[in-house]
Amino acid sequence: MSNRYNLASSEFHSLRTASKKLFKIISKRLNVNTAYVTRRGKTTMTVLSSYNDKEEIIPEGYSVEYGGTYCRLIISNQEDKMSTTDLTKDVLTRDLDVTPQLNVKGFLGVTLRDPSGQVFGTLCVMDKEEKDFSDDDVEFLKSMADVLSHLIELDETKYNMGLLNVPIIPITNGVSILTIQGIIDDYRAEKILRDVLNYGAQYEIDYFIIDVSGLAILDNDFPQVLIDLVQSLQLMGIETIITGISPQLAKNEVNNTQLLHLNTKTVFNLEAAMKYIGFSLIDNNK
Hints:
The protein is α/β, with parallel strands linked by helices. 36% of the residues lie in helices and 24% in strands.
């Protein structure tokens, strides 16, 4: 499964807003009580947004282990769909723990993908009563999923657009700070390496403080570009100090040792980094 989506569920604002508006249309068109969108995590399926017409069946935030979900049956189906007249009688669903918990019968779900084809989650409807869903119903729900799929990309693009820049903050002659936030993909990695090295040469930097407090770690690996960056700066005669290492990152590095093998100074915060260089931060309010 891809680890592409690093946004918290609350950050899929466009998807959540649009889905809520579509749910009423879907509910009326398919004559069902409940419509919802799930997001696939590493081990669970979580309801990102939901609509319940007369009775609450699926609340937002509802989460179930992936292997015991209807969503698994949808995503694993070659036709990207799963429907049944009665979940309590269907051989594929009647023995799942979630079936007696929800106590529903009619169900239809389709895979929700992003425009590149990667699985994001599912778009589903269900009802307390038995329901016979036609081929037209399936195609209708798939068309709604197609609309929502573009909003996944929109939310991710909006999230990453604010992170594509390389924020370098000059502190004093020869000293600058590079703050790293969010996800570092291949494009951004190339931009960081190019911009920082050019900046270091142009402004004759002696020290680069690299703040990684906002860095998003994927697959528990410290981004290779930051390893390359530190080593390249050192070859240029620029000393690096890394600050903002979180407890989670530190725990990962005990096993991965990527940072431990770097010949660089690591400190807790900016004040400690400045002190190491020979500067002190003064509170003018005192």
